[in-house]
Amino acid sequence: MRHLSVKSRHVGVIVVGLALAGGAVACGPKSGGDAKASDGKPQRGGTLYVLNNQPQEDFDPARLYTSGGGNVPSLVYRTLTTRNRANGPAGAKVVPDLATDTGEPSKDATVWTYHLKDGLTYEDGSPITSADIKYGIERSFAAELSGGAPYLRDWLIGGAAYQGPYKDKKGLASVETPDPKTIVFHLNKPEGEFPFLATQTSFAPVPKAKDDGTKYASHPVSSGPYRVVKNENNGEHLVLERNPHWSAATDSQRKAYPDTIDVQSGLDQAVINQRLSAGVGKDADAVTTDTNLGPAELAKVTGDKNLAGRVGTGHFGYTDYIAFNPKVKPFDNIKVRQAIAYAVDRTTVVNAQGGSSLNDPATTFLPEQASFGYTPYDPFPAGKDGDPAKAKELLKEAGYPNGLTVSLTHESTKGDEQGPEVATAVQEALKAAGITVKLDAQEHAAFGQKIRTIKTEPGFFLTGWGADWPSGGPFLGPIFDGRQIVRDGDNFNNAQLDDPAVNNEIDAINKITDLKAAAVRWGALDKKIGEQALTVPLFHPVYKRLFGKDIKNVVISDWTGVLDISQVSVK
C-alpha cells in the first residue's frame, strides 16, 4: 500500500503513486467529467499539448504508477489489466488490457493466471510474450529502479528477498511462464484485488534484450499506441508519436486520436491556467492533468459562459483528515477525540480550502464512491457547523470541565490541504468548545518526517490519504491494519491500531474476488473503525481543470479524477 504524499491542492495524482503518486495520483458523490467539449465528432490527427506543473520524472515502467503523470505512461506502457476509460463511476472498473480477461484466481485467490491476447507487438513489430511481462516485473525489484508500486514485494512468494534480475539471474520462481502467452502468479496470501494491481506499470512488458537499466526511460520500447521520440531533462519535455505497430483491434481502451502528444512540464500553475483560458494558437489544443483552478480563478471562469463550458470536474479517492495518536495524552481518552470530532466546523474548513466547489465535506474515511464501499455514516453528528455544546459535555466527562490546551501539527505551505488555512479553521472551531489549539507549523519535508516516524509522531495533526486503485483495501489497510505498523521507517497507521478483529476482517475481505461484495464489507469496516474516533474526516478534494477550446471527447473517471488523454481528440 502506498501513501500518495502530502500533496498540494494543485497536484491530482502521484502516484502513487504515486501514488500514485501519482502519486501519485485520485472521488465524491458526483460523477466525473461533467463538462462538454466543443461540438463535432472526434477525429484522428493533429498534436495534443499537455501543459503541466510537475515533470513526468523517471519514465521507466518499474518506477511509475499507472496513474502517474496524469496517465501519460499508459499511452506507452500497456499492462495485463487497465482502468475502464469511461466517465465517473464507470471508470472505476478494472478491465483487460494485454490479457484476455481480468485474471483467473485459484479457489483461495493465492494463484492468479493470465493469458495474453493474440497479435500483441512492440513498436518494432516484435511479439510481446509472457516472459517479457515477467522480466518487466522482476526489474521493478532492482534497487536501481526503486520508486514504483511496492505491493509485489509483499504479495509474491519470495518477493521480500528478491533483488531484481541484475543481481539474481534465476528470477522470481513465483512468477511462471509455462508458454509465451501464459503467466501465473503465486502469492503469499489471498489477494482478491490482484486485477487492480495488474494495472500498474510494473506489469508492462520489457524485452530483456532492449533493457539498459537506468537509461531505459530515455528510449523505452512501447507496447501502447505511442512511442517516446524525445525525453528531455528527465521528463520535463516528452514528445510521443504514433506506434506504427499498435493495433486498435487488441486495445479497446485507448482511442489514440492525435498523431503527436507533446508534454511540457515545469510550468507555473497560474501561467498554465492563463494559457488554457486564452486558448491562443497551440493552446487551443492543450490540456492539463495536474493543475487545478483556484477559488479566484474558478469564480472568474464560472462567470464566463464560454470558459465555464471548458472546465472538467474530477473526483479522486482522497480524504483529508485530522489524525490522532492515542499514545499521546490527552488523545488516549476517546472522549477527548470524540469532543474534537463534534467541535469541528466542516463549513469553515471547506471554505478555508477554497469552498464547496473544490471540496466535498467528509464524515466517512472512505471516499464517497461505490467502488470504495462508501457507506454513509456519521458517528459524531454535529451538523455542518459543529456542535460545541456536545463537545464541552464530552470534555467534562473526560475530566476537563474547564477545557484543555492542545497542539495541532500542520504543513506550513499556504494553500496546502494540510496547511495553515485549514489549521486555523480547526483552531477557531475548537475554541468555541473550550479547546485552545496551539499551531505547530512544519516545513513540507520536516512535516512528513515528523508525522510518519513513530518516535516523533505528534498526538494531533492534519494529513491525507489517497488510494492506488478505487477500492477500500488500499485505503483502510495501510491506515488501520496493525501488521502494517512500521517502527523503523515511514508509518501511516498513525493511531498504531492493532486490533485483531480489524486485522482478521481485512484478511477475510482480501479473500473475496467478487469486488462488489468486497466493497460492501469495506464500507462496514470503515463504519466500525470510524466509531473509535481515531480520525476526523474533513473533506474530499474536487478537481476543476480547464481544457483548450478545440479539445473534444473529454473523459474524466473516478479512478484518476483527471482528464484521460488517451480519449482526447484535437480535431
Highlighted features:
disordered N terminus, 19 strands, single chain, Dipeptide-binding Protein, domain 3, 571 residues
> Strand order, biggest sheet?
9-10-11-2-12
Could you say what the CATH architecture of the domain at 318-543 is?
A: Roll
Low-confidence stretches: 1-38
Task: Tally the helices.
Answer: 14
Rg, Å, rounded: 23 Å
Topology, number of strands:
19
Here the CATH topology of the domain at 318-543 equals Dipeptide-binding Protein, domain 3
Provide the β-strand percentage band: 15-25%
CATH class identity of the domain at 318-543 = Alpha Beta
Going by CATH, the homologous superfamily of the domain at 318-543 would be: Dipeptide-binding Protein, Domain 3
Mean pLDDT: 91
Query: Structural class of the secondary elements?
Result: alpha+beta
Distance between the termini: 40 Å
- What's the helical proportion of residues? 10-25%
Apparent shape: globular
- Assembly annotation: single chain
Largest sheet: 5 strands, mixed
